[in-house]
Amino acid sequence: MARRTRFGLLAAAFAAVGTMALAPVAQAQPPADAPPAPGENTPVPAPGPVPVPVLQIPNLGVTVGGLIVPDQWIGTIEVAGTETPGLTHIWGRAADPRICTSYQNFASLQVDFVNIANGRTGSVNAPICRQGNGVFEPAGPVVADTGSGPVLFTAHVLASGIVFDIPGVGGFSAP
After folding, report:
1. What is the pLDDT of residues 25-67, one digit of tens each?
2. pLDDT at 26 (0 to 100)
């Protein structure tokens, strides 16, 4: 008897919650002469590049500047799709923002890639910073004709003062 009562109460509770969830909710309407709320009737921005996840081991290196002071270098890439399938935006990024304020502000990453779905290969030079601006301001992307599908890449730094460089490797799925 207790078991039937428990299930009966449980069924009644679900029925009550379901009825409340499906019942219409009255919403307050603004007066007809009220100004539009912020964000209403504003144009929706066009969709931009869609970021693509990148699995990678970053590029590593040691640099030496004008005062012969060694410094570390860690470089990665970021990827986003374009409106055209098969074309991919690629950005070079330094792990430390001060790279762009140092003698390395002309540095870039050379990204060599192969699309393993269609065999397309190529190489792009992705700048890290805007050329010689002296402040941390990342450079814009370069467009690579990777083709759609899984892409494998290597990346190494192109800069003056590089003592040694261990290329980065990784992959992504190009849209």
Report:
1. 444 455 555 555 555 555 555 556 788 999 999 988 887 776 7
2. 44
Please name which of 155, 169, 161 lies closest in space to residue 62, comparing C-alpha atoms: 161
Distance CA 117, CA 147 (A): 9
State whether residue 116 is helix, strand or coil: coil
| Cβ-based neighbours of 78, under 8 Å, separated by 6 or more | 51, 54, 90, 91, 93, 141
Cβ contacts of 73 within 8 Å, gap of 6 or more: 59, 60, 61, 62, 63, 94, 99, 104, 107, 157, 159, 162, 165
Read off the DSSP letter of residue 165: E
Specify the 3-state DSSP secondary structure of 121. Answer: strand
pTM value? 0.67
